[in-house]
Amino acid sequence: MTGGPEPTPGPRVDAPAAGRGRRLRRRRTLRALALALGLALALLAGEVVARVVGFEGSPRRYFWPGIYRADPETGWALLPDYRGVHVEYDHEAPTTTNAQGWRGPAWDAARAGAAVRVLCLGDSCTFGRGVADDATWPARLEARLRARGLDAAVFNAGVPGWDSRQEEAAFARLVDVVRPTVVVVAWLPNDVTERSVDKIPRTQVLDGQLVEDADRYQAWREREEGRAPRGSALVRLVRSRAKVLGARLSPRVSFDWAVDLPDDALTYSQAPLGRVFARARAAGATPLLVLFPRQEEVEDPASPARHHGRMAAFARAQGVEAVDLHARWRAAGPSPGRFLPRDPVHPTAAGYDDVAAAVADAGAFAPAGGTSPGPAPDERRP
User: Fold this and answer.
1) Which CATH architecture describes the domain 62-365?
2) Whole-prediction pTM value?
3) Disulfide check for 58: which of 53, 87, 140, 256 has CB 3.0–4.6 Å away?
4) What is the pLDDT of residues 340-371, one digit of tens each?
5) Beta-ladder partners of 289
6) Alpha helices (H) along 53-158
7) CA-to-CA distance for 60 and 78, rounded, in angstroms?
């Protein structure tokens, strides 16, 4: 028999307790897997539903693909034969241009031979950003004039981001092409506060987009191209709805030009507008000025908007009729469907149709020797 201490026995293992521990860990693992699987299936179902119902919005707005080309005189213009969309917060607006690089039907011989030829100059509100091709106010104006029995063709020469100086340059190119009988120029306060003489030097066209910060644009482009197509519809839905909700809970979105513009600032637009009016008359056309307001200017009585009255007075001094949408819409009262969601500048299709109604009622379209006719019975009003 050998000597020495006997070995100390280790802790006693309770076999039933060890089994219960293993089973508990297994159940927890299975529950975690089931939860992860359920979450994945729920997200997949949400993605499928978002795509099936056709949600096409975005947490930001842009043209896809890019719609712009560089222009040596105006800084930028529209690509010809463009086919794409403008991505809005809750929808995508199909957007096309014709072979001449303007929105709307081709400027063919049939349209060039119409008895009433209307040339519309302006920015994104004339272009009709955010609505389909047939819902822009120039398109609706043509429909209204034809409903009255007029042989009319309306030419949309609006380009997003343009101001009165760029529109003057475009008019010089187009006056002998269109040979207009009426020239309609749209004006907004940002024609003064977002001046092309300041914007053109800092803006470049990359991939058909207007870009001021190339590094930020490239980062955004890489994110967009890394998704198919343009990211998860469910994620876009959630982000878009969150932004819309945030806008409803916060003060209304406004732009830098939410100010009362003094007379000396307005001369930036008035000088080129005066030259357009004079050249239009020299070409045998009737000029017309349309004044677009912001949503705040329409719905908030405290919002400064005297610049609209000053611009209307300027037009009258030139012998030009002014269609003051600010006065028209303020008199009509707030309309929930007049402007696009989270956008106090661009009207909806219904808003653009009311613009067309106001322009169609102008004296420029009155019968010879008469007053402007009222709307035809089948004309739509929002």
Assistant:
1) 3-Layer(aba) Sandwich (3.40)
2) 0.78
3) 87
4) 988 999 999 999 999 999 999 999 999 865 54
5) 185, 322
6) 109-112, 124-127, 137-147
7) 21
